[in-house]
């Protein structure tokens, strides 16, 4: 299963030096950044280096990933914890109570209109599903927004994230049973680095028509060209900052290139779910037809017909779950 970082220094992060101490790889320049740096002028490299430092500093100012998600994950990983403990996490936050009840009563969970209390929802839905509901409710606050710098419509990243999470859980059910919740959270958050980069992209993209095309979403290569870092790398760093399990960090870091992940199951699942979502028209990365990286179908033991079936299931599930967020 997936281990959490136990580094005792990880909690003591109060500034940039703390970040660099915590994330030694922050002071290294990524391979791709080196490649781009070699191609660009020296002043571009310096500018990128300053920008990347600014972006990394911004992680300190970010609100913590809703603490409730981390608390729920900890509770779920604790063999001595039970449904009552999860229910208590929800009941301590009135906004969360309303959202969880709305979700529990959505068509997706098949018990529409029957759930009137968190205790009742817990009994009907069970430990794992209640844990996923907490993750989903808290993440929707983070992801349900417009990203103007990326040229994404108000619901684009939210629908892409939610559909990817549903597809990721389905794939994990088939190939990595027992890891459905981890797949769900990686699918849900794989592109959340765009939220972190958005303010930097908005300020950098003005007048950068030589870098950005006239229209269409900003790609990861354009992120690197403009900012010196892409959304997958920055979100992986943020998740380490928030002390997510390392397997989830890796899944998010390599969701565009799972072959570089040293066989991370979650990276393959995240990549496939991202592509399935794009194929179904819930994209937020590019207008081009999405393609699975070589070897992904083999790794996940899927046939092309399985992919079509998973995509259909994902679309149906998205429709039945989305009503709860309207
Ligand atoms: Fe992505
Ligand atoms: Fe994606």
Provide a short characterization of the protein structure.
The chain is mainly α and 326 residues long. It is built from 17 helices and no strands. α4 runs antiparallel to α8 (127-143).
Tags for this model:
globular, Hypothetical protein af1432, binds fe (ii) ion, disordered N terminus, 326 residues, 2 domains, mainly alpha
- What share of the residues lie within helices? 55-70%
Poorly predicted runs of 5 or more residues: 1-40
Overall number of domains: 2
Strand proportion: under 5%
List bound small molecules.
fe (ii) ion
Taking the sheet with the most strands, its summary is:
none
Name of the level-1 CATH class of the largest domain: Mainly Alpha
Q: Which secondary structure elements does this structure contain, and how are they paired or packed?
A:
Blueprint: H1 16-22, H2 31-39, H3 42-61, H4 67-77, H5 83-91, H6 94-104, H7 118-125, H8 127-143, H9 156-175, H10 180-189, H11 193-205, H12 220-227, H13 231-241, H14 246-253, H15 265-279, H16 296-300, H17 304-322
Bound molecules: fe (ii) ion (2 copies).
